[in-house]
Amino acid sequence: MFLNFITWNVDPVLVHLGPLAIRWYGLLWAIGIYATLLIVQKLFKHEGLPEVWLDKLFMYTVIGTIVGARVGHCLFYEWDYFSQHPLEILYIWHGGLASHGGAIGILIAMYFFNKNVSKKGYVWIFDRLVIGVAICGASIRLGNLMNSEIYGSATTLPWGFIFLRNKETLPMHPTQIYEILYCLITFVVVWWLYWKKEAYKKNGLIFGVFLIGIFGSRFVLEFLKNNQESFEADMLINMGQILSLPFIAWGIWLIVRSLKTDPQPLKGSKK
């Protein structure tokens, strides 16, 4: 039997260690990045790729994700404030990370990874990396739930959450959970494509499916979510949807292009 609603009042701090506090959000970010590393390690081993690439990929990805997520939040959502307080862009411990900014940061970081390390083509690395990124995305959204942030509008559905920390009195759509689900579904699909269909031999196919799965779902889900900033109130579609559109278009183009080309034999592959 379903509950009429779920009361949610989780402390965002997991544990206090003297003056330090370990927050669920930071821990889940770290778990997501580590899970990505383990998944990509398995793929690299399967294809017989140099182990040293993994360490460098990890460094490029972490820096690109964190810097991009922070700058993206400041630029896309609170530029009026941060343009007047530019030093506070560095205060990452105050919170404020944007997933679209993180995606852009990874795109830039992988340009340099391809140029300086792999030299196998820009899209090539994404066909492997995004399989792990899908799990990382689910972990980060769980962190948003633990923070009682980025949730949806009021709902009468039996799984609505009352976020007491934000002084809500009505059940809201737990869109963080919806996003966890579409990240996990996308992971299952791209994992299946890699291992069962050897889709990594079709340059851009896995990456394209990932972009549609993540950003297409994000675009639809935004209709249920509360606006993050007041300036979005009069917009036909919000900032998250606007930023999703180029990724969706890119995903469609990658899929169409990959399906028109023959599979490429991969040097160093064990199959």
What descriptors fit this protein?
mainly alpha; single chain; about 270 residues; 4 strands; two-stranded antiparallel ribbon; two-stranded parallel sheet; globular
Structural class: mainly alpha
Taking all residues together, what is the mean pLDDT?
89
Distance between the termini: 49 Å
How big is the Rg? 20 Å
- Along the chain, the helix and strand elements come as EEEHHHHHEHHH
Number of strands: 4
**Count the helices. How many?**
8
Helical residue percent? 55-70%
Overall 3D form: globular
* Whole-number tally of structural domains: 1
How are strands sequenced across the largest beta sheet? 1-4
Query: Biggest sheet, open or closed, and with what strands and sense?
Result: 2 strands, parallel
Topology:
Elements lengths: L5 E3 L4 E5 L2 E4 H24 L3 H26 L2 H4 L16 H20 L3 H25 L14 E3 L11 H23 L7 H17 L17 H21 L12
Parallel strand pairs: 1-4
Antiparallel strand pairs: 2-3
Helix pairs in contact: 1-2, 1-5, 2-4, 5-6, 5-7, 6-7, 7-8
